[in-house]
Amino acid sequence: MTLRSRRGWRAAALLTWALLVGSQAIAQGAADFPNRPVTIMVAYSAGGATDVAARTIADGLTKLWGQPVVVENRPGAGGNIGAVKVARDKPDGYSLVMVAPAHAINVSLYPNAGYDAVKDFEPIGRVSYIQNIIAAHPSFGPNNVKELIALAKAKPGTVAFSSGGVGTSEHLSAELFMYKTGTKMTHIPYKGTSAALPDLLSGQVLLTFGNLPALLPHIKKGSVKVLAVNSPTRSSVLPDVPTANTDVPGYDVTVWLGLLAPAGTPPDIVAKINRDVGKVLEDPAVRTKLDSLGMQPAFTSPAEFRALIVSEVDKYAAVIKAASIKVE
């Protein structure tokens, strides 16, 4: 054997050994995962729907894994700060982020969101969804979608609606509604859903495109009425309320919540987290808790969640462009 051939043989042997050790390390990583605390980032303040969903999942995983699963709140820039932080974290499964539609919206809404909604993350799975609704003060004339469309067309720009802010899913649900119905209404943005509520309850603003959990207590009291839910199916907590797409075909705006990991997280670790989150969501107590808050458990595979994010990026990009929405 020549010197050159001996060197070639040794190089091949070293490469084979490295590949074998690498594959064993990955397998061990999945089998041993987690062996230290895991963090779920929430890019919003504590107490909101995304935070509640994250803490519910974190509690279940802590019991299942025997390791602390900690929720970290890092609000700012509409959710961009927390998303960017996780996108840059080590892709080992120990850093996750609970995201909402803003994850797909912000890449079109901001000149530079700082992340790619699809390429920079490995989807774990959608956890649940929240129905957006069209709601109003009891004194508002229209009682259903047909009457709202008729009023908005008869008096363009005079019907005002509130939302939790420019570029939020509530705002874009209204923009999509106007886009599909050929109507024009006036947007009154607030700094969050909670900030918009007092004016709706007092009748200062008569109409809102909001999410069900925030408005449900006021709906039950009768201080807010519901014109429609903005998803293809009726709400389990408001079964008598019709869906908006009965009168507006193709209109579908739901607030999905799901987990992502940094791009490059090993597939077997992604699969393990997905499998165990699924176990948490099978717990009747967890399902009851989420359902009571207006959050429908709706678990998916990583591939299904990736497809959802891709479609949402495209949908909201079209709406933002058509409405010329900009963050100031």
Molecular structure report:
The structure is a single chain. This protein is α/β, with parallel strands linked by helices. 46% of the residues lie in helices and 19% in strands. The chain has helices spanning 3-32, 49-65, 80-87, 102-109, 145-154, 169-181, 193-202, 212-221, 267-281, 284-292, 302-323; strands at 38-42, 69-73, 95-99, 121-136, 160-163, 186-189, 207-211, 225-229, 254-262, 295-297. Strands 1, 2, 3, 4, 5, 6, 7, 8, 9 and 10 form a 10-stranded mixed β-sheet that branches. The longest helix is centred in the N-terminal third of the chain and has 30 residues, at 3-32. The radius of gyration is 23 Å and the shape is globular. It starts with a helix and ends in a 5-residue tail after the last helix.
Characteristics of this structure?
328 residues; alpha/beta; 10 strands
Sequence-ordered SSE layout with sheet pairings:
Blueprint: H1 3-32, E1 38-42, H2 49-65, E2 69-73, H3 80-87, E3 95-99, H4 102-109, E4 121-136, H5 145-154, E5 160-163, H6 169-181, E6 186-189, H7 193-202, E7 207-211, H8 212-221, E8 225-229, E9 254-262, H9 267-281, H10 284-292, E10 295-297, H11 302-323
Parallel strand pairs: 1-2, 1-3, 5-6, 5-7
Antiparallel strand pairs: 3-9, 4-7, 4-8, 4-9, 4-10
Helix pairs in contact: 2-9, 4-11, 6-11
